[in-house]
């Protein structure tokens, strides 16, 4: 059953730029895949590795996506990079990427400028998950219909299912499910919702060090996720407990809520999505401290406040800080030593919303 993959509205790059990159890569060339640590990032890597066939895979969060990572890869002899689902904006990082022979960046976050150059192929489209962009591009070279269900799961988990709605409806029907949106939110029932739910929870359980286990556990057949459901259920119980704690501990802001907690699992962004679907007209900010950083996520499902601009504004005057993403969902961090200053600034800024 061949279902047409709708062409994304590319803001930077094109399928031609992608094919140009692919033509430069030889079988004997050393190539690494770098992607984000969520379902969209893992699915993007599954899709792209259908044609690149490398075992050198790195799943990283933003504090680790830095110059040291790129230098380590260079020392390992890596000459070519494929980066998916990671927001690239640091000019030093771009300069370091230009030291590699060929770099492909496939992303869906808002960007500050077009990074395309003789060495960098930058492909970006808004309002699609990165996995869908990868699926569209790779499909021009190889038949990968067996992963359509997985791309649909990534679209749901990233709350990006409007622009590719027609395609998603056909994929749902193909596997005996019904695609339904109410008030901008997808119906949280059915096969696909459950699949993306448990895949996302398994990723949280595995954390960064064991994400390759999740990557290799996902099969080609619909719903094939090996034994990942067992670990997912552990996180599911923990999330239910955390949602109760949120209601008890949340701090009221002018247009939403702030909550700080130290999680057993990295569920901050995940819980932000769940809370924001309950409070669609509220700005939800959830933060957690780590050894070196104070990490936070922001959500606003009705889109009436721009989370990308909010976090960029809040982090712009801090060193070792970053923030941004999408209008409805964004993430960021500041140095742990700036935690209290950030919280003071947060209170001031929220009052202005």
Helix/strand-derived class?
alpha/beta
- CATH architecture annotation of the largest domain: Alpha-Beta Complex
Shape: globular
How many domains comprise the coordinates? Answer: 2
Number of strands: 14
Count of helical regions: 13
Note the main sheet.
6 strands, mixed
Low-confidence stretches: 348-353
Q: Between the first and last Cα atoms, what is the distance in angstroms?
A: 48 Å
Helix/strand order, N-terminal first: EHEHEHEHEEHHHEEHHHEEHEEHEEH
Strand order of the largest sheet: 1-6-5-4-2-3
Helix content, binned percent: 40-55%
Give the strand content.
Answer: 15-25%
User: What top-tier CATH class of the largest domain fits best?
Assistant: Alpha Beta
CATH topology of the largest domain: inorganic pyrophosphatase (n-terminal core)
The whole-number mean of residue pLDDT values reads 92
Compute the gyration radius: what is it?
20 Å
Q: What can you tell me about this protein's structure?
A:
The radius of gyration is 20 Å and the shape is globular. The chain starts with 9 loop residues before the first strand and ends with a helix. The chain has 13 helices and 14 strands. The protein has a 6-stranded mixed β-sheet. A 6-stranded mixed β-sheet has the order 9-10-11-12-14-13, sandwiched between helices. The chain is of the alpha/beta class. α2 (39-52) packs antiparallel against α6. The protein folds into 2 domains: 10-230, Alpha-Beta Complex (inorganic pyrophosphatase (n-terminal core)), CATH 3.90.1640; 250-351, Diaminopimelate Epimerase, Chain A, domain 1 (Roll). β13 (322-325) and β14 (329-335) form a beta hairpin. It has helices at 15-24, 39-52, 67-75, 91-97, 130-138, 148-157, 165-174, 190-206, 211-217, 228-249, 268-278, 307-315, 339-351; strands spanning 10-12, 31-35, 57-59, 80-84, 102-107, 120-125, 181-182, 185-186, 251-253, 256-260, 283-289, 293-299, 322-325, 329-335.
């Amino acid at each position: 059953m061949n279902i047409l993959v709708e062409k994304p509205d590319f803001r930077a790059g094109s399928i031609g730029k992608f094919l140009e990159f692919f033509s430069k890569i030889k079988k004997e060339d050393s190539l690494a895949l770098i992607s984000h640590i969520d379902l969209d990032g893992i699915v993007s890597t599954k899709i792209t590795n259908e044609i690149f066939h490398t075992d050198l895979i790195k799943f990283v969060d933003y504090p680790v996506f830095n110059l040291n990572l790129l230098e380590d890869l260079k020392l390992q002899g890596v000459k070519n990079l494929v980066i998916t689902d990671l927001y690239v904006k640091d000019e030093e990082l771009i300069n370091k990427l230009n030291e590699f022979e060929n770099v492909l960046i496939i992303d869906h976050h808002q960007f500050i400028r077009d990074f395309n150059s003789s060495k960098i192929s930058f492909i970006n489209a808004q309002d699609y998950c990165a996995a869908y962009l990868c699926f569209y591009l790779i499909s021009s070279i190889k038949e990968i219909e067996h992963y359509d269900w997985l791309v649909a799961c990534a679209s749901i988990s990233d709350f990006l299912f409007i622009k590719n709605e027609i395609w998603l409806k056909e994929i749902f029907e193909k596997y005996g499910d019904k695609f339904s949106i109410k008030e901008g939110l997808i119906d949280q029932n059915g096969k696909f919702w459950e699949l993306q739910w448990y895949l996302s929870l398994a990723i949280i359980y595995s954390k960064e060090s064991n994400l390759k286990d999740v990557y290799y556990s996902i099969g080609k057949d619909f719903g094939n996720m090996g034994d990942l459901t067992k670990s997912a259920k552990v996180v599911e119980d923990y999330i239910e407990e955390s949602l109760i704690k949120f209601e008890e501990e949340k701090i009221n802001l002018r247009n939403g809520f702030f909550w700080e907690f130290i999680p057993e699992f990295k569920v901050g962004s995940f819980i932000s999505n769940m809370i924001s679907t309950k409070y669609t007209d509220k700005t939800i900010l959830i933060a957690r401290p780590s050894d070196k950083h104070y990490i936070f996520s922001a959500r606003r499902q009705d889109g009436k406040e721009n989370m990308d601009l909010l976090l960029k504004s809040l982090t712009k005057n801090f060193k070792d800080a970053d923030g941004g993403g999408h209008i409805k969902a964004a993430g960021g961090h500041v140095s742990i030593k700036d935690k209290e200053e950030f919280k003071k600034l947060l209170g001031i800024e929220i009052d202005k919303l």
